[in-house]
Every structure is written in structure tokens, then in C-alpha cells.
Amino acid sequence: MPHIETLTLGPLETNCYILWQEDPRQVVVIDPGDDIQTLKSALKDRTVAGVLVTHAHFDHILGLPAIPGAPIYVHALDAEAMTDETVNCGPVKSASPYVAATDTVEEGSRITLAGMTFTVLHTPGHTRGSVCYQCGDDLFTGDTLFVGGCGRTDLPGGDWGQMRASLRRLMALHGLRVYPGHGESGVIA
Questions:
Q1: How does residue 189 score in pLDDT terms, banded at 50, 70 and 90?
Q2: Helices H / strands E in the chain, number of each
Q3: What is the phi/psi pair of residue 34, to 5°?
Q4: Backbone torsions φ then ψ of 144, nearest 5 degrees
Q5: Nearest residue to 169 via CA among 120, 118, 135, 109
Q6: Is residue 91 predicted with pLDDT exceeding 80?
Q7: Domain boundaries, the chain
Q8: How far apart (Å, rounded) are the C-alpha atoms in residues 2 and 7?
């Protein structure tokens, strides 16, 4: 079971997760939100084995400049949005530069980083390339699933029909701890 540190970053209060297995100096970052200084302070001298992006909206990726050189994973359908503020809904004159993904994932991909294995569940609806990352009994859902709700579907790439199908899929899972992109964590009963 990984150790999980939660940071709430940026004006949209995006949850960023820092995970490690046994060595707290080797970590994985999920959804580095819009607060480079806080993220740098939290990472200190840790080595980031990889960054997992649940979807490429600006509030989940603007912290990437704090993590130079780490591989960045995103679903292929959201890869373009990593550097396109029209698609990622970001500010045109962002204070932080947009950073491209180094690797793409798809449904069923398995990524092993810092001694932890993450399985990709493609859960479109919030964006075309929204994914959840499952690591053991932990599920990092980005904006697909919140405690008591889900992400918007009225932004570029959003689709309510796909979101409903993704939510039905996640509701069929049981006993997983959910770590959403915003708000409190919970358990799928």
C-alpha cells in the first residue's frame, strides 16, 4: 500500500497526490496543479519517477514546470491539450509554460514507477482522454468521480453520455479508496 500525501493547489483547489512505496525519496506525482512553489517545496530533494495526468485541463497540469525531466503520462486523446490552452481551458497568458507529455497511455496500460504499479482505466466524459489510475485498492479519479458528484461535461471534449457510462463502470468497482481531482477522498462501497 503506497503512502499518499495530498496537496491542494491553485485557485481551483486541485488535489495533487505524491505517492511513495518504501523510500520517500522516490515518488510519483498525480495531477500537479497550479502552484509551482508549493509543489517544489513539497518535493524538496525527492526524485520524481513519473507524473500521471488524469486529464489535461490546465488546473491539473500547470505545476509541471516544478518537475523537470520526469516522464509525463497522459491518455493519447488528451495529449494535444497538454500544450493547447484552447483545449485545456487554461489562461491564454498563463504564468507557467505548458509542458508536453512524454508518454501516452490507453485503457489497460500498466505503468510501474517507484515500485508501484498503476493500471489505466479510460473514463471519458469530462474530457475525451480522462483516465483513472488504480494502484492496489487506491483509485485516482481526477475529475471523473468526486464524492457526491462528477466533473463537468460542458467543456471542450466533454460528453454527458460518456460520463454516465464511465460512472456506471466505476460504480461496479467495490472497496476502493477514491482520490478525486477536487474535494475529499472516499470509498466506493
A1: low
A2: 2, 12
A3: -80, 70
A4: -75, -45
A5: 120
A6: no
A7: 3-187
A8: 16
